[in-house]
Design a protein that fits this description.
This protein is an alpha/beta fold. 37% of the residues lie in helices and 22% in strands. The longest helix is centred in the C-terminal third of the chain and has 22 residues, at 425-446. It is globular and about 80 Å long. The protein binds 5-amino-5-deoxy-1-O-phosphono-D-mannitol (M6R). 5-amino-5-deoxy-1-O-phosphono-D-mannitol (M6R) binds at residues 298-301, 345-347, 350, 353, 396-398, 482, 486, 603-604. It comes from Ruegeria haliotis.
Length: 607
């Protein structure tokens, strides 16, 4: 994880670096730091915790200079501390790093043989020390950086800054993304183009193994073999404005509230007004030619895939496998050329998902991704990238991206059903009509905010919470539990309702709240039986259902959350709202850091 930036500018670098780091803080917020070269002298400032602490430090202890590098950290090696914060400096070189140097122990041992000691617990310090070692042996800064990069194994995006060199940054990419921004006699480096959005829209993406030498007026890129490489400079459309919270207290609250609008946008872009058929732009994707779908993702995106499995199987009669990317990539699953490999990722930068995608290259019929960031690595490396149109999502807990992922995946399943002739025209039209009505139903669900806050107040006193669901509600039960644990730090698990009696029911007592997600659908009665089993053991049930479901099953429950009626296929999208709001209000009641919960980062770019 971590975010890195670099600037060779015409103005003071520190405020530019801090502003760019703000846009990268979603990658980690354990510490932040910058280094600059001022009249040839290399200096640095670092602070533990969020970026605001570094900003405060710079007010009292400014760091002048028009060239610099910066870093926001998600700790991998070594606790979050000033000492372990980047940039790491060894004599005349400072380095910022995103990724993991896997052979750092071996490199440390080698440096130790030369009598070189260490001040930090990080893998990155090794990079700085090794570069310094090569500089001492007489190599130039560029040669020393390149020779160091040659020795590194693992994943990295790196930027080097040198004492005495105020017009030079060396950068490198392997396994972690890196973008170079072109300004007017200025040059920039960033972990992603969004970090550079206010500075430039002219971006060159480094490719795997690339290393780059930047001055204010030149960019030279070499590939891993050391040959000069031509990388396209693109003009990209970027959202300059950093999203603000509007009237909301947290980004998460704002993003939950935005769902009717962004889901409408996602639906409109794949199901144009008046059409009952899904239209995928710029692709000849034909599901009738495919035998199987393999879906891979992490976290919330994985739960979106698990939901989509029900849709593809039920609507398109298509066999589907769903995998967690970190398992898939090392399992060596056989992929045939009649398999569609589908990757779902909000950020489009999740390291495990990207690695899984690369595993499928050359094996699957096509690589398709469902992403929120169209310029991301996963989007760029796919044959077909389908944007979800959720807009920038800042809250670490994914909300609107999830419902937009679900909407796009449902439309993809409908396209598969149309291609394979498994749904009639009327059935397709019925789904299309329900989808078009979804944004307004989401609005009605949001109106339940106050009732949900009341239930959350009670949840905030619990130590453990169970979420139950059956069929399409089962993946949502797991997503609801993930939301709750990541922002409120309450232990929560999601279970298939019918699975409870095979073990987890032993946990039920009068202290255990159990959230039951149960629209009045074909499996409602079964779910209610499982809910009765919970109540018979004094478990406290929060029943989330519609009018019919609540009328039938509310006797003896702790509280109810009322949802509008919905087409059964769309229920997981609608019921996401109470799951998200429950987690949100519980976290607010507990006073946790809702948008930036401890230990997490928005984009997980390490294994
Ligand atoms: O950017 P991605 O969708 O690939 O991220 C996947 C997960 O890291 C992400 O969904 C994570 O689980 C969220 N914190 C969940 O709210």
């Amino acid at each position: 994880m971590c975010g890195i930036v670099g600037v060779l500018g015409q103005h003071e670098a520190a405020p530019i670096l801090v502003e760019a780091l703000k846009r990268l803080e979603y990658r980690g917020y354990d510490s932040a730091g910058i280094a600059t070269v001022n009249s040839g002298a290399l200096g640095r400032r670092r602070a533990v915790g969020k970026l605001v602490n570094l900003s405060d430090l710079l007010v009292h202890d400014p760091l002048p200079g028009k060239s610099g590098i910066g870093h926001t950290r998600w700790a991998t090696h070594g606790a979050p501390s000033v000492n372990n914060a980047h940039p790491h400096k060894a004599g005349p070189v400072a380095v910022v790093h995103n990724g993991i140097v896997e052979n750092y122990r071996e490199l440390r041992a080698e440096l130790a043989e030369h009598g070189i000691g260490f001040e930090t617990e990080t893998d990155t310090e090794t990079v700085a020390l090794m570069t310094e070692h090569f500089l001492k042996s007489g190599l130039s800064p560029i040669e020393a950086a390149f020779k160091t990069i040659d020795r590194l194994q693992g994943a990295f995006a790196l930027a080097f800054l040198f004492d005495g060199q105020d017009d030079l940054i060396v950068a490198a990419r392997k396994g972690s993304p890196l973008a170079i921004g072109h300004g007017d006699s200025e040059m920039f480096v960033g972990s992603d183009a969004i970090a550079l959005a206010p500075l430039t829209n002219k971006i060159t993406y480094l490719e795997e193994g690339d290393r780059a030498v930047l001055t204010r007026t030149s960019l030279e890129i070499r590939n891993e073999a050391g040959e000069l490489a031509n990388r396209e400079m693109r003009k990209i459309k970027l959202d300059h404005a950093r999203a603000d919270k509007g009237e909301h207290k947290h980004f998460m609250a704002k993003e939950i509230a935005e769902q009717p609008i962004v889901v409408a946008e996602a639906i409109r872009s794949y199901m144009p007004t008046g059409a009952d058929q899904v239209v995928l732009p710029d692709t000849d994707l034909d599901f009738s030619k495919l035998d199987r779908l393999t879906m891979v993702a992490c976290g919330t995106a994985f739960y979106a895939c698990l939901t989509a499995k029900y849709w593809f199987e039920q609507l398109a009669k298509m066999p589907v496998e769903v995998d967690i990317a970190s398992e898939f990539r090392y399992r060596e699953p056989p992929i045939t050329d009649r398999t569609l490999a589908l990757f779902v990722s909000q950020s489009g930068e999740t390291a495990d998902t990207l690695a899984a995608l690369r595993y499928c290259e050359g094996k699957a019929d096509k690589i398709v991704s469902v992403v929120n960031v169209p310029e991301s690595s996963i989007a760029r490396e796919s044959d077909v990238a389908l944007p979800i149109h959720a807009g920038v999502e800042i809250g670490v807990a994914s909300t609107k991206a999830f419902t937009c992922q679900l909407s796009v995946l449902l439309m993809l399943a409908l396209k598969a059903a149309a291609d394979r002739g498994t749904l009639s025209d009327e059935e397709l039209a019925d789904h299309a009509a329900a989808l078009r009505g979804l944004p307004s139903v989401l609005n009605t669900a949001l109106d339940q905010n106050r009732a949900i806050r009341k239930s959350a107040q009670r949840l905030s006193e619990a130590r453990d919470v169970l979420f139950l669901g059956r069929g399409l509600m089962y993946p949502l039960a797991m997503e609801g539990a993930l939301k709750l644990k990541e922002i409120s730090y309450i232990h929560a698990e999601g279970y298939a309702s019918g699975e409870l009696k095979h073990g987890p029911i032993a946990l039920i007592d009068k202290h255990m709240p159990v959230v039951v997600m149960a629209p009045r659908d074909a499996v409602f009665d079964k779910t209610v039986s499982n809910m009765q089993e919970v109540m018979a053991r004094k478990g406290k049930v929060i029943l989330v259902s519609d009018d019919d479901g609540i009328a039938e099953a509310e006797d003896g429950v702790w509280s109810t959350i009322r949802m509008p009626h919905i087409h059964p296929s769309l229920a997981p999208i609608l019921y996401s709202v109470p799951a998200q709001l429950l987690a949100y209000h519980t976290a607010v009641a507990k006073g946790t850091d809702v948008d930036q919960p401890r230990n997490l980062a928005k984009s997980v770019t390490v294994e």
